[in-house]
Design goal:
Blueprint (H helix, E strand, L loop, with lengths): L18 H4 L8 H24 L4 H12 L3 E2 H8 L3 H13 L3 E5 L7 E5 L1 H25 L3 H12 L2 H20 L3
Antiparallel strand pairs: 1-3, 2-3
Helix pairs in contact: 2-6, 3-5, 3-6
Length: about 180
Amino acid sequence: MADINVLTLSSRPLESGSATAEHGQAQGPAFDLIELLFFAYRDFIGDADEVLARLDFGRAHHRVLHFVNRHPGIRVADLLDVLKITKQSLGRVLRELVDNGYVVQRAGPADRRQRLLFATQKGEALALELALLQTRRFARALHECGGEAREAARKFLAAMIEPSARADVEALIARADREAKNRPR
């Protein structure tokens, strides 16, 4: 069972100058949004969890496969940076993906010490299956919200990213989108 840490919050309004007060939210924690995000994430990832469980894989496998598939030839060091995990955590997951034929590792062309990662055809197929499951959930939600919901959702999610990291994340996504358009299928 996971540890649960309880934080006692004061019932008084936030001090002027706090991040919450600055953005017009002086009522305390946004429990409704926090809980909606928890439940939305639970269901969003749950669709993929069912497929992964049949393969004895978990969410870490999904994250690694997603980024390896979206960024063919990604260096292990860059993947560690994207996922913000330790080399030890990545090692086990990556070994299982390689051993099961979803990912291959190749030495870098200029620096043989570099390990470059590529999804195999089997890995691409699984990554696509998982992405389509999650895309269907997005499509349904965006349809229910109507009109400009996709752009609003995109702006909201980008704004949730630490400001100092946003430009790098946007560049990573844009690069993957460009490369995917130019990749032969």
